[in-house]
Design brief:
Structural class: mainly alpha
Low-confidence stretches: 24-33
Mean pLDDT: 80
Distance between the termini: 17 Å
Largest sheet: none
Strand content: under 5%
Number of strands: 0
Helix content: over 70%
Shape: elongated
Number of domains: 1
Length: about 110
């Protein structure tokens, strides 16, 4: 059962990281249809937040490249790192889920 607790821990970290990076949950509300409190719903909301962080970072990078005022290189680099950390966390959650699935499927009755 340590696999499930580690998955829950990773989801909690992913949720906290995405919320602190974006400050909003606008895209995550559309994923609420999967069921509030359900595992699938939480996974969808987490992936939506990761996507929002990436979209924001790429938008900041584009704005900096175009020379828009108020967009500094420091902010762009920080946003890009937040997006990278969010994505890497999501990949690790996926790996843990795949490992847990394989472990469950290999159990004998």
């Amino acid at each position: 059962m340590t696999t499930i607790s580690s998955i829950e821990g990773m989801l909690q970290q992913l949720r906290g990281l995405a919320q602190s990076a974006t400050g909003t949950e606008s895209q995550a509300t559309s994923a609420a249809a999967a069921g509030p409190g359900s595992f699938a719903g939480e996974l969808q909301r987490s992936l939506a937040r990761v996507s929002a962080v990436q979209d924001h970072a790429y938008g900041q990078a584009d704005a900096f490249e175009l020379g828009k005022p108020g967009v500094s290189l420091n902010d762009v680099m920080i946003d890009m790192q937040k997006a990278n950390v969010s994505f890497q966390t999501a990949v690790q959650v996926r790996n843990k889920l795949a490992g847990a699935y394989q472990e469950i499927m290999s159990m004998t009755v």
